[in-house]
Amino acid sequence: MIDLKGKVAVVFGLANKRSIAWGIAQKLSEAGATLAICYQNERLQREAEELAADLPNTKTFRCDVSIDADIDSVFEQLKSAYGKIDILVHSIGFAPNIKNNVLNTAREDFRIAHDISVYSLIALARAAEPLMAEGSSILTLTYYGAEKVFPNYNIMGVAKAGLEAAVRYLASDLGAKKIRVNAISAGPIKTLAARGISDFTSILTAVEQRAPLHRNVDQLEVGNAAMFLSSDLASGITGEITFVDCGFNVTGL
């Protein structure tokens, strides 16, 4: 049994009960961590507060990661509320006009996709670092579309590749302080973000047919992996991309 009692975990990216962030939050709470859940804007506030009410010792905070002042503000609030951060979860990704193929991606759409999906991890890690002690963990979420071409994933695949590179460089930057940085490459899950991917069901079907386990994963399975990577059991793991996809990434045909 993984014990995270006494640990403070901050989870960014909660949209609704189908969010991967929610599966991770549940598992971290189950292991005893004190949770801070961060939502983007007032539109998402009610759902975040209702979900947080189901977890003990959990508070909610608003933060738009595209605004530096918001990041500064929320970490001042977190410092005041907890004094430290042991676990930071970045479950954030967005690309406007994702239906456009990469060739036809507008410059501004490229900028926004990388700002929200990649730079936000760097910005949050920088803000969290002063509050993190030796052995702390930073975790983000990626997808196999960073390595292989998936239909209709388009510019998000390029952004996820950047995110995975950022994980490795941040692991190097923060390694001297013994702060670990890792990513989970989750299999396809019916989240709010997935709705923007055309014919998403074909990807789900392909995983069921070809993955060694012949099924798709769910949020709680991703949460289990996050719980492990956030714990002292993973003290020697950093800069890694861990697949939680029922083995789909190992298959050819």
Automatic annotation (TrEMBL):
<feature type="binding site">
    <location>
        <position position="160"/>
    </location>
    <ligand>
        <name>NAD(+)</name>
    </ligand>
</feature>
<feature type="binding site">
    <location>
        <begin position="64"/>
        <end position="65"/>
    </location>
    <ligand>
        <name>NAD(+)</name>
    </ligand>
</feature>
<keyword id="KW-0275">Fatty acid biosynthesis</keyword>
<feature type="binding site">
    <location>
        <position position="40"/>
    </location>
    <ligand>
        <name>NAD(+)</name>
    </ligand>
</feature>
<feature type="binding site">
    <location>
        <begin position="19"/>
        <end position="20"/>
    </location>
    <ligand>
        <name>NAD(+)</name>
    </ligand>
</feature>
<keyword id="KW-0560">Oxidoreductase</keyword>
<keyword id="KW-0276">Fatty acid metabolism</keyword>
<keyword id="KW-0444">Lipid biosynthesis</keyword>
<feature type="binding site">
    <location>
        <position position="95"/>
    </location>
    <ligand>
        <name>substrate</name>
    </ligand>
</feature>
<feature type="binding site">
    <location>
        <position position="92"/>
    </location>
    <ligand>
        <name>NAD(+)</name>
    </ligand>
</feature>
<dbReference type="GO" id="GO:0006633">
    <property type="term" value="P:fatty acid biosynthetic process"/>
</dbReference>
<protein>
    <recommendedName>
        <fullName>Enoyl-[acyl-carrier-protein] reductase [NADH]</fullName>
        <ecNumber>1.3.1.9</ecNumber>
    </recommendedName>
</protein>
<keyword id="KW-0520">NAD</keyword>
<feature type="binding site">
    <location>
        <begin position="189"/>
        <end position="193"/>
    </location>
    <ligand>
        <name>NAD(+)</name>
    </ligand>
</feature>
<dbReference type="InterPro" id="IPR036291">
    <property type="entry name" value="NAD(P)-bd_dom_sf"/>
</dbReference>
<dbReference type="GO" id="GO:0004318">
    <property type="term" value="F:enoyl-[acyl-carrier-protein] reductase (NADH) activity"/>
</dbReference>
<dbReference type="Pfam" id="PF13561">
    <property type="entry name" value="adh_short_C2"/>
</dbReference>
<feature type="active site" description="Proton acceptor">
    <location>
        <position position="153"/>
    </location>
</feature>
<comment type="similarity">
    <text>Belongs to the short-chain dehydrogenases/reductases (SDR) family. FabI subfamily.</text>
</comment>
<feature type="binding site">
    <location>
        <position position="13"/>
    </location>
    <ligand>
        <name>NAD(+)</name>
    </ligand>
</feature>
<comment type="pathway">
    <text>Lipid metabolism; fatty acid biosynthesis.</text>
</comment>
<feature type="active site" description="Proton acceptor">
    <location>
        <position position="143"/>
    </location>
</feature>
<dbReference type="InterPro" id="IPR014358">
    <property type="entry name" value="Enoyl-ACP_Rdtase_NADH"/>
</dbReference>
<dbReference type="InterPro" id="IPR002347">
    <property type="entry name" value="SDR_fam"/>
</dbReference>
<keyword id="KW-0443">Lipid metabolism</keyword>
